[in-house]
Amino acid sequence: MVEQRYKGYTLRNFEEIEQVKSLSPEIIEAIKVVGHVLPFKVNSYVIDELIDWSNIPNDPIFQLTFPQKDMLKPDDYQVMKDALDRGASEEEITRIANEIRYQLNPHPAGQQQYNVPMLDGEQIPGMQHKYRETVLFFPKNGQTCFSYCTFCFRWPQFIGIESLKFASKEIDKLVNYLNEHEEVQDVLFTGGDPMVMKPHMFGEYIRPLLEIDHIKTVRIGTKVLAYWPYKLTEDTSEGPKYLDLFKEVSDSGKHLAIMAHFNHYAELKTDAVKRATRNLRQIGANIRTQSPIMNHINADAKVWAKMWRTQVDMGMVPYYMFIARDTGAQHYFKVPLVKAWEIFYKAYQNVSGVCRTVRGPSMSTTWGKIEVTGPARVGNQRVLTLRFIQGRNPDWVGRPFFAKYDENAIWLDDLKPAFGEKFFFENETQYLQSFDRIKNLVELPLISS
Ligand code: SF4
Fold first, then answer.
1. Which of 36, 57, 236, 436 is the most exposed place for a label (fewest CB within 10 A)?
2. Which residue has the CA at smallest separation from atom 8 of ligand 1?
């Protein structure tokens, strides 16, 4: 069985990787120092089939999965390096790591304050309800990934600070909540990567949803196709079971939407990902693709155009280009909004109409998903035009608004309204409450689990 070839590597054993043995001492040191602060895990499929080891350190998949020196600010890097060099205790290293981590905005976009739903006056940890139609669910057993992405905004889930995690095994609470909220049509399973679960375990989460009439779409946010596609091929023990489970979803009449994370076309090149994609399509799943735009990995229109074309050739639907979130190593990956827009449109103009299902570049902010639709001139003023793709208030969706043109801005917080003192939505702070909080107006503590 193919899974016998699967091997995971972390900080503890990565120096056993054959290809790593030929890396320079500087690169290995950086992996160790940064890997003590940001999560690091990689697997044998990524190492053997995705990374081009003749192109280190620039290979995009190496950048995506292996910690790099500049992912920490120089002072932070030095503090951690000194601690490791002098053989500091595990306790001290953890303390230093946590001090650095807490400066990296571990929960961007108000995830902990604003989005935790309530049932019978109690919070439901492991869930978020930010947009009217969609509930996010974080299965307790899906809070890890096949490999960790160095840019990931979910990084606090993986570093063992309990208070920073979301998770729930309380499927009953999810079902009760959904039964009380008929406005919800979609449930998005996310993590980590929920596909790390065994198929029978995932089935326990999914099957009760098939009984709820108003749930129309089961979405699964996953990087399984990029990091371990054998989970969906016929030559593994789990592949056929997973495909049977997903077929149950399609056969029940629900829409099964795989929200697949691909950051570079290199992740689409193997025979395994092609077979897994074909299998998913055959059982009736729709695969939509998404990625942030990131310096060092994919900040190039040619990369995006080739990625979207390849995805469409494989039967996937390009869905989102995101702006890297304001968390973790954002300083390393950041691409200014204007530059991201230029890359998006250059790529968009060079693909055929069937690829132009993609939206972006989009920021997932506290207020909602905001798309940068480009620079423009209004009268004598140079502006940046934006619009909501998703909003805490559904009335905001599709509404254009204008910011002063700023080619250095990397996030909404950097932008100033082009007209007036505030953006229109800043007068509607009541929507920063979760849906039940609007009714109850009780204080939520910062921590959800
Ligand atoms: S697979 Fe997804 S959740 Fe996991 S580290 Fe990568 S981006 Fe984050």
1. 57
2. 152
Determine the distance separating the centroid of ligand 1 and the alpha carbon of 149, expressed in angstroms.
5
Residue 395 Cα to ligand 1 midpoint, Å, equals 31
Give the per-residue pLDDT at 449. 19
Q: Which residues of 261-280 are buried (b: 16+ CB within 10 A; e: fewer)?
A: bbbbbbbbebebbbbbbebb
- pLDDT tens for 262-317 read 999 999 999 999 999 999 999 999 999 999 999 999 999 999 999 999 999 999 99
**Torsion, Cα of 75, 79, 84, 89 (10° steps):** -150
Q: In this predicted structure, what is the pLDDT of residue 441?
A: 29
pTM here is 0.90
Domains and CATH numbers, the chain: 2-102 (no CATH), 108-440 (3.20.20.70)
Tens digits of residue pLDDT in 410-449: 999 999 999 988 999 988 876 765 444 333 322 222 222 1
Q: Which atom of ligand 1 is nearest to the CA of 144?
A: 4
Task: Look at residues 110, 172, 108 and name the one whose alpha carbon lies nearest to residue 140.
Answer: 172
Q: Whose CA is nearest to atom 6 of ligand 1?
A: 149
